[in-house]
What does this fold into?
Amino acid sequence: MSQKNIFLDWKNPGKALITGASAGMGFCFAKQLAQKGFDLILVARRRDRLQEIADKLASDYSIQCEIISADLSDIDEIKKTAACVKQIGNLDVLINNAGFATIGDFADVPIEKTMQMFNLHMASCVLLTHAGLPGMIKRKRGAIINVSSVAAFTLTPGNVMYDATKAFLKTFSENIQLEVRGHGIRIQALCPGFTRTEFHEVGDFKNFDRSAVPDSLWMMPDDVVSLSLKALEENKEVVFIPGWKNRLNKWIILHSSIVRNYLHKKVKERENLSGGNHHD
Ligand SMILES: NC(=O)c1ccc[n+]([C@@H]2O[C@H](COP(=O)([O-])OP(=O)(O)OC[C@H]3O[C@@H](n4cnc5c(N)ncnc54)[C@H](OP(=O)(O)O)[C@@H]3O)[C@@H](O)[C@H]2O)c1
It folds into this structure.
């Protein structure tokens, strides 16, 4: 068993609930918080995989580890999960992490899939936060990480809902922090760039060619998560972008005319392809 390290000066870690804990960054959050001594509640759809992870973390780190198998793209299942969150007396950490991506123009992606993303990225975060925050305010301690993305800063045709839902998470987090900062609670909108997880292997991204993105731009999920937790402990900015390359990327997106010109060119190409007549 490894040495437990103290998080945020909390000498008696309570519970941490992590959505999307069956893979990728959610799994890494679970592992690193277990290492810090938190009891865990792991949420995702794949029950067997969650149970396997829960058993291993409980035995490796001598913690309690429960699972909730739930599809958080379904409003009823979100409400049931939120009801469980309300029952937790000592919720210290909430990580709203579960997510997925689609490929295709907004008009072409089936509305059911779009609403699943809407619910998973936004409704689930809103309901779970609303269920968990009052207890944190009462106990005057807590931390919430909402996993957004560098996509929150971009406009990419073909990625409308992803960009929009991730931008929502950023604004939601920044604003909540303003409300709760006097209560000893820390909020973070974690905005990773390309990270080596299952994200680019599932759903619409099943055939994604990872080599299309230069190796140097990818980060490992364990590194993203340890930087995120460190930033939270150091009380860094609410909107946290891990890795200097991702921070540079965000700066370029926001300030460089190259990106604006590229976007303009792409939009023009699409207009020409559709033979449309548009107001400029
Ligand atoms: N990887 C990247 O390059 C990248 C970059 C920026 C931001 N992000 C964000 O990081 C977060 C974590 O993604 P990841 O990269 O770790 O991806 P991942 O390896 O694919 O993990 C996604 C997790 O979300 C869970 N999940 C998906 N749909 C769900 C649903 N309907 N209900 C409940 N759980 C669900 C999955 O579990 P089950 O399948 O078992 O349900 C899995 O545990 C996402 O919000 C993503 O948007 C990722």
